[in-house]
Design a protein that fits this description.
Elements (H helix, E strand, L loop, with lengths): L4 H14 L11 H20 L2 H5 L4 E11 L2 E10 L21 H9 L4 H12 L5 H8 L3 H8 L6 E16 L2 E14 L4 E9 L4 H13 L4 E7 L5 H8 L4 E4 L1 H9 L7 H12 L4 H15 L4 H14 L7 H7 L3 H14 L8 H16 L9 H12 L8
Helix pairs in contact: 4-16, 8-9, 10-13, 11-12, 12-13, 15-16
Length: about 400
């Protein structure tokens, strides 16, 4: 008894599976199915196009044509309906389309989000599916992400963020034939429930307190009413910008940044001994003890390195905020390691790029990297139950714990 078409397809599918062959690749069993689906869709589209009004105007079917179409299931030859006026504009397979790239869009965007170049993506698709996709098609597909980027940048935010780290990454972008620097400002926050979220991503020509002020103003316009603790580097004017927008915030500048900047002005032969004395300052159990150790540091090194010691004294009110908390919160806020760790993950994706063709190309890739990275942010920070109680005691009604 002759097998039905379905039985033949089923047997072929089982055979390909047993051999480890792809059902969707070149010569896969699903290629005929896709062809039938597309041809049926084109016929339905033509029927809808040839409405009563269209027929009364003199338009009608005018035979059939054919076109070669490359798909994830290999190359197929479609039979396409035509009309006398050539006014039928199919959407599922457009008139000049020779590659059905839409069904590859998730794979293409996924590869692009891992930092692969268009050339590498095209080669990968060619090897996997025997489909050639031009750079212009790849560009068009990845540019579909742009509305998502803009929507994400302008989404509403929660009213309170308990801890916020702010720092910038630096890149090169082509602008009118020149390669120019760009600073990408990132704001990583922890909400009242202990979950991390990148609440802001902005781009500017360079890093400065004036632009950070515009960043903070934008956060406020998107719904942020309060930030309990803001962790920053020691950029001049940064703390003042934060306080001007969120006057109740406590500022903690990064101790590690301060140490790095200090060591720039300490002779290499003195650095080991200097650091040993400096550790007694920032690793002290209390602020009072830390201040005593700072005085000892001054006694030992003040005459030789007066500018370094003066910097610690002048910045002390911003460097010492973390002493008001126990070790769980101290580890979170005394450095900007949280946002720098996030930056390291982003750079793994962007490191293959030289200069980006434009600002949006840069933001687009970072946004896709953020989507992948944030998939792991599914649990509150470690020991958040203890941390949140301490924040509640410290900040009272501003914390507003849900009990």
């Amino acid at each position: 008894m002759e097998k039905t078409e379905f039985e033949q397809m089923r047997d072929k599918a089982l055979e390909q599976l047993m051999k480890g062959q792809s059902l969707t690749g070149k010569d896969g069993v699903f290629a005929p199915l896709l062809q039938q689906f597309l041809e049926s869709a084109l016929e339905s589209g033509m029927n809808a196009h040839l409405s009563s009004e269209e027929r009364e105007s003199g338009n009608k079917r005018n035979g059939k044509g054919s076109k070669r179409l490359k798909t994830i299931s290999g190359e197929i030859i479609l039979t396409t309906p035509e009309d006398r006026k050539s006014s039928f504009l199919p959407q599922i397979v457009k008139k000049c389309e020779t590659v059905l790239a839409d069904n590859l869009a998730p794979q293409i965007i996924g590869l692009y989000s891992k930092g692969m170049s268009f050339r590498d993506i095209s080669d990968h698709i060619q090897q996997m599916y025997d489909v050639e996709i031009s750079h212009s098609t790849l560009s068009e597909i990845t540019e579909r992400v742009i509305p998502q980027v803009k929507e994400w940048q302008n989404r509403p935010l929660e009213s309170l963020y308990t801890i916020v780290w702010m720092d910038a990454m630096h890149y090169k972008v082509k602008d009118g034939g020149r390669v120019v620097p760009r600073a990408v400002y990132n704001v990583l926050g922890v909400n009242r429930h202990g979950y991390k979220e990148l609440i802001g991503m902005y781009i500017s020509e360079s890093e400065g307190s004036n632009f950070w002020l515009s960043v903070l103003t934008d956060l406020k316009s998107r719904g942020v009413k309060d930030i309990l603790i803001a962790c920053t580097d020691n950029l001049t004017g940064f703390s003042e910008a934060i306080i001007s927008v969120f006057p109740g915030s406590e500022i903690q500048t990064c101790v590690i940044h301060q140490i790095r900047n200090s060591l720039k002005y300490v002779a290499s032969k003195d650095q080991k001994a200097f650091m040993q004395d400096l550790k007694n300052v920032y690793q002290a159990p209390t602020q009072e003890k830390a201040e005593l150790e700072l005085e000892k540091l001054d006694e030992n090194w003040g005459k030789k390195y007066p500018i370094v010691i003066k910097s610690w004294y002048s910045n002390w009110h911003k460097l010492s905020t973390y002493f008001a908390y126990d070790e769980h919160i101290r580890k979170l806020i005394y450095t900007t390691n949280a946002v720098e760790g996030f930056h390291r993950q982003v750079r793994k994706i962007t490191k293959t790029k030289g200069a980006f063709p434009n600002d949006m190309a840069l933001l687009k890739l970072i946004y896709l990297a953020v989507e992948n990275i944030s998939k792991k942010w599914t649990s509150p920070l470690l020991n958040w139950a203890i941390t949140s109680q301490q924040l509640d005691i410290k900040f009272g009604d501003r914390m507003k714990m849900d009990l």
